[in-house]
Amino acid sequence: MEKITLTIDGMAVETEPGSSVLKAALDAGIYIPHLCHHEDLEPVGVCRLCMVEIEGRMVFSCLVPAEDGLVVRTESPAINNARRVAAELLIVNHNADCLACAKNNDCKLQEIAAYVGIDSERIERLRVPKEMLPVDDSNPFFDYDPNQCVLCGICVRTCDQLQGVAALDFAYRGYRTKISTFGDKPIAESVCESCGECVSRCPVGALVPKNFQQPARETRTICPYCGVGCSFYLGERGNRIVSVRGDKQSPVNKGSLCVKGRFGHDFVGHPDRLTTPLIKRNGRLEEATWDEALDLVAEKFSQYKGDRFAACASAKCTNEENYLIQKFTRAVMGTNSVDHCARL
């Protein structure tokens, strides 16, 4: 596809037709502050931070399509002042305890504040006592703190445009506006499917996994829950899994995960998890080696061929492994009594 060329801050930038000015700049390594923009979602231009100057007019770069020959300025006294005011209005109503926030050092608002420059004395003069809203911790996998929310709407658009669930929306008006469920009920009582897609896209600390900890390292692997083969990065700390991040480069899931893939890995380090085969001897389960366990299973299989045998496969197996289970059941054990836990 033929590319178009525009000029951003005196630099010639090539981009694909249909791209926005903001995307063209970001792809070229030119930073333009933005908060409500996400590459997976339709742009809305509500944060008012990504403004640029085109032909003497200030416009929102996320909403302006890139055109051949367009000349864009990302910096000017007027632009910087407007951005600073927009950032101040967000920060002045935002919880200021950044050190205790799970998104500290990974927060879009912090990034913007550092870029535009914020006067702490001016912020304190503007700040007024704010009613602290209760944290919604009803969901078993993540918490929602409305006091950290900047009303960017990314969670609302994610739930609507990507998941088609529409569990969240803007509620109330004016100063009392907040993100809420239908009827302002706890998230656990809404139609939320706990997929965590909104959590993964929240630019601040409003939506965070429960008991969140920063990982010391990440390992790319495949989700163990079904045969789809979604790819993700497991965040590890010591010998514990503390986070899960979808792999956006994966052609299978493109970064998206279901509730099991994102939050269902506590079993890996659970103290009750079996780590050694057990064989019942004299009425009691005792630890055994894998060779002992497999020999016992093979011996028992030889005694229960035909209709005395049945197999139940697992959703944690791949499609190929489940195929082998049914093939073994029919061809070796001589029965069609095979089932799968996902059907129950």
How would you portray this structure in words?
By secondary structure, the protein is of the alpha+beta class. It folds into five domains: 4-125, Ubiquitin-like (UB roll); 131-209, Alpha-Beta Plaits (2-Layer Sandwich); 217-269, ADC-like domains (N-terminal domain of TfIIb, Single Sheet); 275-301, no CATH class; 304-344, no CATH class. The chain has helices at 21-27, 77-91, 108-116, 120-126, 154-162, 197-201, 259-263, 290-301, 319-332, and strands at residues 4-8, 11-15, 51-54, 57-60, 71-73, 142-144, 169-171, 178-180, 207-209, 217-222, 231-237, 240-246, 278-281, 284-287, 311-313, 338-340. The strands form six sheets. Strands 2-1-5-3-4 form a five-stranded mixed sheet, sandwiched between helices. Strand 13 and strand 14 form a beta hairpin. The longest helix is centred in the first third of the chain and has 15 residues, at 77-91. The protein is elongated. The two termini are 48 Å apart. The model has no long low-confidence stretch (mean pLDDT 91).
Structural class: alpha+beta
Shape: elongated
The fraction of residues assigned to DSSP E strands is: 15-25%
Radius of gyration: 27 Å
| Order of helix and strand elements from N to C terminus | EEHEEEHHHEHEEHEEEEHEEHEHE
| CATH C-level label of the largest domain | Alpha Beta
CATH topology (fold) name of the largest domain: Ubiquitin-like (UB roll)
Distance between the termini: 48 Å
What is the number of independent domains? 5
Helix content: 10-25%
- Write down how many β-strands occur, each being a DSSP E stretch of 2 or more residues: 16
Major β-sheet annotation: 5 strands, mixed
Query: Which strands sit side by side, in order, in the main sheet?
Result: 2-1-5-3-4
| Uncertain parts | none
Supply the number of helical segments. 9
* CATH architecture designation of the largest domain: Roll
